Amino acid sequence: MGDHHHQEGKELGNTVLAVCGKGGVGKTTVSALLARLFSRRGDTRVLLVDADPAVGLGMAMSIFPERTVNDIRKEIVSTVREHATDSLDLAASVDYKLMEAVSQNGRLGFLSVGRPEDEGCYCQLNTLLREAIETLSGHFDLTLIDAEAGVEQVNRRVMRSVSHLMLVCDPTPKSLNVAETIRKVAEEAVNYRRLGLLINRARDEREARSLASRSELPLLGWVPEDDAVRSFDSSARSFLELPDCEALQAVEAAVLGSGFLEI
Ligand SMILES: Nc1ncnc2c1ncn2[C@@H]1O[C@H](COP(=O)(O)OP(=O)(O)OP(=O)(O)O)[C@@H](O)[C@H]1O
Ligand SMILES: [Mg+2]
Asked: What atom of ligand 1 comes closest to residue 168's alpha carbon?
């Protein structure tokens, strides 16, 4: 395993980037832009995790997985009900099932959390999602997570192993407040190494800087309103095919130009 590829992978190893923020600020868009960016970078193996039960990222990438983390949850629940399975056997088979639920598209892996039918299942699902992130990220150079809106998944420690926490907001104080709340909760609940703010849909640098100056959060960058993004979204085309555009360049500058990701 000491070959060159493995060494390269190691530098990025355990880079787990989560995109968090208030509802509607552009988390899925930013995740899709990041996926598009890294899907074309050398031999980087990328795992995309759609952690939002509303399933936005799969749509943006035109990836429709056959099995979700919620399907696995249901299987485990019924296995435990039917047989008194040995818990060690069960743990090993859970990791295997999670691996199997990753759909592979070239060097890009994709895992979707899915949507439980019943509110009471969210706790189990979040626990299994945490397990999925922790075991699967070891097999990829970079894991990108499109989180559910708000603070809940951070609070429930689903994002415990996230190394890079990206807080997205739009040019509204309300969404900046949500980003700050997530940061507060993350101090206890996430083992992150780096954290930064990305302002989406800013009109210009001035607007972005003026909003960022209301906060202690370190500014990674800002993303303009982009027609390419809008048209890909409205025609449901995969962001993997998105041509070079302003939003893509802005996201690249925010994560690579700023030194946020040490690649
Ligand atoms: N920079 C941008 N330029 C143009 N359109 C954008 C941009 N960012 C987001 N949008 C559009 O805004 C809408 C909301 O964005 P998105 O779905 O990414 O937000 P979200 O934070 O993931 O929302 P939710 O909390 O519901 O998951 C989408 O229609 C998206 O195409
Ligand atoms: Mg979304």
From this structure: 21
Instruction: Tell me, rounded to whole angstroms, the distance of Cα 257 from its chain centroid.
Output: 20
Domains and CATH numbers, the chain: 9-255 (3.40.50.300)
Those residues whose beta carbon sits under 5 angstroms from the ion ligand 2 are 27-28, 56
Cβ–Cβ < 8 Å for 198, 255: no
Angstrom distance (rounded) from CA 112 to CA 124: 15
- Using CB atoms within 10 A of its CB, is residue 88 exposed (0-12), middle (13-18) or buried (19+)? exposed
Asked if residue 40 has pLDDT above 80, the reply is: yes
Express each pLDDT in 102-147 by its tens digit: 999 888 999 999 999 888 788 999 999 999 999 999 999 999 999 9
Residue 240 binned pLDDT confidence (cut-offs 50, 70, 90)? very high
Name the residue of 28, 59, 148, 226 whose CB sits within 8 Å of the most ligand 1 atoms, as the mutation to test its pocket.
Answer: 28
- SS (HEC) of 54-87: CCCHHHHHCCCCCCCHHHHHHHHHHHHHHCCCCH
β-strand pairing of 164-169 with 142-146: unpaired
- Between strands 108-112 and 103-105, the pairing is antiparallel
Write down the pLDDT at residue 11: 45
